[in-house]
């Protein structure tokens, strides 16, 4: 019922609708620009939202995240370069379709599938989030710490090529978060006598550095790489070839339904994110397909499955953020910052204190999906052509300058600009050496809550660590963390063995 | 007759492992500089110690993996001049904002950034030097009302607006 009231309220607010529309367009363009992710766009635009109403700010960034995930498919299909990591799976079948002169058809399939996946994820979020929040209310500090622990391990070990480097990225995030005054005892930690460090490292410049300036460092190395667009065939024959009929889309529906559920499930788990969902859905889709031989050579189902999954992640990834204060993705981490900046305390009580705001945010999400769906269905090819007209040599210097002023505007502090520069170079180095910048940022955000719950647990147990194993829910999550690590290590070992057998 | 190549010990994994280990040890040492709680407890130290300890352990695991692999995994290739140039520009720009204010530093940094990305048209560079500071100033400092960073040595805003 709340959601219908919220939908009515949002639909009758022209200013809010304008922000949602702007977000749908900005997200699509940012997601479609190779190298520029939705996270980068959100980090860069974050300071602008400080001056907006809380619901407008949250809706603007939330819809950019949704639309950006979809926008990645445009460049995957048209340029053979995924705009986001999540759309790499779309590229496998999308680009062969584009080469056969069916780019528009592939993009229509991607749009419809993204919209269905995104709606499914959001509806599941709206229906289930209240129940999760009610359960979360009954959790104590030991259980919450165990959830944080599982999140650290999963985030560090599951994403990326190397478990050790992923976990090291997470450990670095925790270490950087502890810089400044200890929130409980007010002792100095790693401040080295610098006054600017006593308040710690701020999240906004850190994220702008990692996601925006880090990408500028990457792009300067590729500044001479040409971006070529695959155009649709002209004339009536080309138009006929790109018309999507019901009989063509119908075989995609079972894949879209399965992938939407896969994406929604993966979305609830902190840290896994869209790219894993897209590849799992692609693998499952191919396994269940009636035409597995066509997959990889331009099957429409091969576009539909990953697109539905990567967008279905968007809604459910908000569940751990809103109910436990644990961001499940980098976009979640940024939104957490927005909530805090506007003085809104996230966690299970959010549904009691700010229920109207949360349902308005969900309503904005639903409207945003419809908006990017309509714009994408009729205008994705135009967006692709628009992007090829933006010269990378001009775009990235502008992004470079914007990163500086955005980092400064967050607190009006020049020290933040220096933090942003160091984070940018560090983020570029991390990517070069297969570390995991996303794990670093999410762990940085999680560390505060994890430390607080850990120390509260120790106070409850009079410094006994056994409290974490004598409480069943806490033990369950500790086991989940360790099991995820072991499972991932075994998978990587098996892949390494298979690769060495192929080499032999 | 086959000759076995000597194992390549200084590969990428070993170097990353060594750097992580050294960084972790330095962090561990720094953790012990954190004051104890009033009751002598390690409260404020526990989390930094756990993270630093994890870095040491992970560094040693990576180091051992590199030594065991014993084959050359080259360091990633990178465009040294461009990246170093951009890093110097970024640090210099951050420093210059504090010295000569936002307008002058951006008027210098904008064309330099475009030059680094390969733009050579002098009219474009000149336009960037004028337009970038003006546009950013209007959006952020006039439109959004952010208080601008004034230069310690000199600031063009002082000249334009008066003291």
TrEMBL record, chain A:
Highest taxon in the source lineage: Bacteria
InterPro entries given in the database record: DUF112_TM
Keyword Membrane belongs to the record: yes
Keyword tags: Membrane, Transmembrane, Transmembrane helix
Domain DUF112 span(s) in chain numbering: 18-442
Zinc in keyword set: no
Pfam families assigned to the protein according to its UniProt record, in alphabetical order: TctA
Membrane-traversing stretches: 39-64, 109-138, 144-160, 192-213, 260-282, 324-345, 357-380, 386-407, 414-430, 465-487
Protein name as annotated: Putative tricarboxylic transport membrane protein
Organism name: Jannaschia pohangensis
From TrEMBL, chain B:
Keywords, comma-separated and alphabetical: Membrane, Transmembrane, Transmembrane helix
Positions of the DUF1468 domain: 15-147
Recorded superkingdom: Bacteria
Listed InterPro entries: DUF1468
Chain ranges passing through the membrane: 12-36, 42-61, 99-118, 125-147
The protein's name in its UniProt record: Tripartite tricarboxylate transporter TctB family protein
Organism: Jannaschia pohangensis
């Amino acid at each position: 019922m709340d959601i219908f009231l919220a939908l009515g309220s949002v639909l009758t607010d022209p200013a809010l609708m304008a922000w949602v529309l702007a977000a749908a367009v900005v997200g699509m363009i940012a997601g479609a620009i190779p190298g520029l992710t939705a996270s980068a766009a959100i980090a860069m635009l974050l300071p602008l939202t400080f001056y907006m109403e809380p619901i407008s700010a949250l809706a603007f960034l939330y819809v950019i995240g949704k639309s950006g995930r979809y926008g990645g498919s445009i460049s995957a299909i048209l340029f053979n370069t995924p705009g986001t990591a999540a759309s790499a799976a779309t590229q496998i079948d999308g680009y062969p379709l584009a080469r056969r002169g069916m780019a528009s058809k592939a993009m229509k399939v991607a749009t419809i599938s993204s919209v269905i996946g995104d709606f499914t994820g959001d509806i599941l979020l709206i229906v289930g989030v209240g129940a999760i929040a009610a359960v979360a209310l009954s959790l104590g500090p030991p259980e919450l710490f165990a959830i944080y622990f599982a999140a650290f391990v999963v985030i560090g070990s599951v994403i990326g090529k190397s478990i050790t480097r992923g976990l090291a990225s997470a450990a670095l995030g925790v270490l950087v978060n502890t810089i400044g005054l200890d929130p409980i005892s007010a002792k100095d930690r790693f401040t080295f006598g610098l006054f600017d460090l006593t308040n710690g490292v701020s999240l906004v410049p850190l994220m702008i550095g990692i996601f925006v300036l880090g990408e500028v460092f990457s792009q300067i190395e590729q500044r001479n790489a040409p971006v070529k667009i695959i155009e649709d065939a002209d004339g009536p024959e080309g138009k006929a070839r790109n018309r999507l009929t019901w009989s063509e889309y119908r075989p995609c529906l079972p894949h879209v339904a399965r992938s939407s559920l896969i994406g929604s499930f993966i979305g609830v788990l902190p840290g896994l994110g869209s790219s894993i969902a897209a590849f799992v859905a692609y693998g499952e889709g191919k396994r269940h397909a009636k035409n597995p031989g066509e997959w990889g050579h331009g099957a429409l189902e091969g576009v539909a499955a990953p697109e539905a999954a990567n967008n279905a992640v968007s809604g459910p990834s908000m569940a751990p953020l809103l109910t436990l204060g644990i961001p499940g993705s980098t976009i979640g981490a940024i939104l957490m910052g927005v909530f805090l900046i506007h003085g809104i305390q996230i966690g299970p009580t959010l549904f009691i204190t700010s229920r109207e705001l949360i349902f308005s945010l969900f309503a904005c999400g639903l409207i945003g999906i419809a908006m990017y769906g309509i714009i994408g269905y009729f205008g994705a090819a135009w967006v692709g052509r628009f992007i090829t007209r933006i010269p990378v040599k001009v775009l990235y210097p502008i992004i470079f300058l914007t990163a500086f002023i955005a980092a400064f505007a967050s607190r009006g502090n020049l020290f933040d600009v220096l933090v942003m520069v160091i984070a940018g170079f560090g983020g570029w180095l991390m990517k070069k050496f297969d570390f995991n910048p996303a794990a670093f940022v999410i762990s940085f955000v999680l560390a505060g809550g994890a430390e607080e719950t850990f120390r509260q647990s120790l106070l409850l147990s009079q410094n006994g660590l056994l409290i974490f194993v004598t409480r069943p829910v806490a033990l369950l999550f500790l086991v989940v963390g360790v099991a995820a690590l072991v499972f991932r290590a075994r998978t990587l070992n098996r892949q390494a063995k298979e690769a060495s057998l192929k080499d032999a | 007759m086959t000759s076995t190549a000597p194992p390549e010990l200084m590969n990428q994994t070993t170097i990353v492992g060594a750097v992580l280990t050294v960084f972790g040890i330095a962090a561990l040492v720094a953790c012990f500089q954190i004051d104890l709680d009033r009751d002598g407890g390690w409260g404020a130290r526990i989390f930094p110690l756990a993270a630093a300890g994890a870095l040491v352990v992970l560094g040693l695991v990576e180091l051992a993996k590199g030594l065991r692999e014993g084959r050359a995994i080259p360091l990633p290739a990178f465009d040294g001049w461009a990246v170093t140039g951009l890093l110097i520009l970024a640090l210099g720009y951050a420093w210059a904002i504090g010295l000569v204010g936002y307008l002058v530093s951006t008027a210098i940094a904008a064309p330099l950034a475009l030059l680094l990305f390969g733009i050579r048209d002098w009219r474009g560079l000149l336009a960037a030097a004028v337009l970038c500071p003006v546009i950013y100033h209007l959006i952020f400092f006039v439109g959004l009302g952010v208080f601008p960073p004034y230069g310690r040595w000199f600031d063009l805003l002082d000249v334009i607006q008066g003291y």
